[in-house]
Amino acid sequence: MNDNREQQTAKFKVNREEVNEAREILFEVYNALKEKGYNPINQIVGYLLSGDPTYITNHKNARSLIRRLERDDILEELVRKYVGD
């Protein structure tokens, strides 16, 4: 017999303040990586996939900034931007 919960879709609620903070931090981290000569996309993807903060430079406090965010908040912002919400 199927459990009814297995057929329901879970809902995820977004906190708008966290989204705005994630966006600002992503731009700052992106620019810091670019200034240091890294490919910002590759470095941020490496960080998101591994959770290893050494993918992010210390330049302009970028590593510290990105660690203030949960990785799921960053992914949420990226998906939102990609689909145009």
What report would you give on this structure?
By secondary structure, the chain is an all-alpha fold. The chain has one domain (about 15-85). Helix content is about 60%, strand content about 0%. Helix 1 crosses helix 2 and helix 1 (about 15-35) packs across helix 4 (about 70-85). The longest helix is centred in the first third of the chain and has 20 residues, at about 15-35. It is elongated, with a radius of gyration of 16 Å.
Lay out the secondary structure.
Blueprint: H1 16-35, H2 40-50, H3 62-67, H4 71-83
Helix pairs in contact: 1-2, 1-4
Number of helices: 4
Order of helices and strands: HHHH
Strand content: under 5%
Q: What is the subunit organization of this protein? A: single chain
- Based on DSSP secondary structure assignment, what is the total number of beta strands? 0
Quote the distance from N terminus to C terminus: 39 Å
Count of discrete structural domains: 1
Structural class by secondary-structure content: mainly alpha
- Average pLDDT score: 87
Largest sheet: none
Shape: elongated
Helix amount: 55-70%
Unreliable spans are none
Radius of gyration: 16 Å
